Amino acid sequence: MNTDRPEHHWSRLAAAWPGHLPRRTIRLEHTAAGTYDYMERRLAECWGEAVYAVLSPSAGGSGRQVIVTRVRDYPTGVYRVPSGGIDHGERPEEAARREATEELGLVARVAAFIGLIDFHHIFAGRELVFPSFAFLLTSSGGDFAQRTHDEIADFHPADAGELWQYVDRLRSIGGTMQAWGAFRSASTALVADFLEKSSSGVG
Q1: Using alpha carbons only, what angle is made at residue 176 by residues 154 and 186, rounded to the nearest 5 degrees?
Q2: pLDDT in tens, 9-33
Q3: CA–CA separation, 85 vs 133, rounded Å?
Q4: Is the pLDDT of residue 45 over 90?
Q5: β-sheet bridge partners, residue 26
Q6: Widest CA span of the chain, in angstroms?
Q7: What is the Cα–Cα distance from 182 to 189, expressed in whole angstroms?
Q8: Angle at Cα 80 formed by Cα 6 and Cα 38, nearest 5°?
């Protein structure tokens, strides 16, 4: 069996976390070859991505804040819920835990499967599908200072309201980065929606 198939993991994860899990399809029209070509290269390196929303250790157990990050070349004031590629042969939840360790220096476990977004990236008659699996993680140890990657320039905890503000900023990005902003806003919005519903007892 080809374990890199999104359908296989969607069925498996939906069975492990029963409930009304969202699965969304989003079409992104790229206006520049560069951003589409980047996604094409990413799909060659990995078969999708895992979005890892780590509950902030500083939230006092309230579960209302997750860690958001920014990379040095992001536009000013832009943060998002981090993500990382799912290696070929790797499960999405395994990728989420691994990325949390590599990027944030944390030992984490999966607390919930949040949902799946099937991104259809389109440019000049070409199209590729890039699945994005989102998870809620809790930290059981580690140290931010021990992260092994230096791509992240800054990070801090954010509640659902702050996440929606970052969603708006990502959606407002224009020019050749517009498709990227829409791409990154969608997974952050999925997490914000999950936090709101879980706090209100909906879902």
Answers
A1: 55
A2: 999 999 999 887 899 999 999 998 9
A3: 10
A4: yes
A5: 119
A6: 50
A7: 10
A8: 55
Could you give the C-alpha distances from 183 to 120, 130, 193, in angstroms and in order?
10, 10, 16
Query: What amino acid is encoded at 47 in this protein?
Result: W
Residue with tokens 């969607």: 10
Strands (E), 82-149: 83-86, 106-123, 126-142
Half-sphere exposure of 18 (CA within 13 A, CB side): 1
Cα 56 to Cα 72: distance, rounded to the nearest angstrom = 22
Number of residues in the chain? 203
For the entire predicted model, the pTM comes to: 0.91
**Lowest mean pLDDT, pick from 17-31, 80-94, 142-156, 180-194:** 142-156
With CA atoms as reference, report the closest residue to 53 among 197, 172, 190, 203.
Answer: 190
Which residues touch 150 (CB under 8 Å, ≥6 apart)?
A: none
Six-digit token pair at 8? 């296989």
Output the six-digit token pair for 101. Answer: 């360790």
Rounded (to 5) percent helix, strand, coil in the chain: 40, 35, 25
The angle, 0 to 180 degrees and rounded to 10, between the axes of the packed helices 178-200 and 160-171 is 160
For residue range 52-82, list pLDDT tens digits in order.
Answer: 999 986 655 445 899 999 998 899 999 999 9
